[in-house]
Amino acid sequence: MARQSNKHKEKPRKPKHSKRLANPRKPDIKACKAMAICGHVRAEYIEKIWSERRIRTFTEEGLIKKVTYSTKKGSVVCYKLTESGVNYAKRYIIPEHQIYASKSIVHDVYMSDHYFTKMSETERETIKTETEIKSEFKEMLISGEIDKETYDSCSCVDFSYTSDSGEVIGFEVVTENYTQQDIQAKQTFCSVYGCTYTEVTAKTGGVR
């Protein structure tokens, strides 16, 4: 007589990270926050924050993955949060409205370069991602602070932050497919939002 299946009796398994990583350490917060804000982050930056063992733990838990991008100057190796990693970040690291929707490896790499090489720890703490800025800007329209014509003429920057000198910076990675109209919309946004427009040009084949 065939034995009946007990599959229906099995209880759904809880994610391992709910116990193993439920209390993130300071390096976990620093690394996950960087990936939540920038998307793809160069491996060299993550490896300065996490030990090889910690990277392996987060990889085995399915929270991060390594991504390689080939350029004329060689390969660029990055880490990014997986879908599970984004959910982990939302739960333990950073509010959902601050998480950046990744565009492309090249775009994100230039963001992570600015984040890690041009900004102090204090400045990083003041970052508002594009997702957060869009929400705030929409509220400005709804409240009547700006009109529809002004709203439609603007395009939000990748992120904003307050410099150590107190200046609010609107940072944008300009890719090769940007038109002058696109750039003007970013500049108009910064003028309306009250921040100084700063850009860096991303060259697809020139990422080192």
Give a summary of the structure in a few sentences:
By secondary structure, the chain is of the alpha+beta class. Helices cover 44% and strands 18% of the residues. It is built from 10 helices and 7 strands.
Tell me what the structure shows.
It is a single chain. With 208 residues, this protein is an alpha+beta fold. It is built from ten helices and seven strands. The strands form two sheets. It has a four-stranded mixed beta sheet with strand order 4-5-6-7. α2 packs across α5. The longest helix is centred in the C-terminal third of the chain and has 14 residues, at 180-193. The radius of gyration is 20 Å and the shape is globular.
SSE inventory with pairings:
Blueprint: H1 17-20, H2 26-38, E1 41-42, H3 43-49, H4 52-60, E2 64-71, E3 74-81, H5 83-92, H6 105-117, H7 121-124, E4 128-129, H8 130-142, H9 148-152, E5 159-162, E6 168-174, H10 180-193, E7 196-201
Parallel strand pairs: 6-7
Antiparallel strand pairs: 1-3, 2-3, 4-5, 5-6
Helix pairs in contact: 2-5
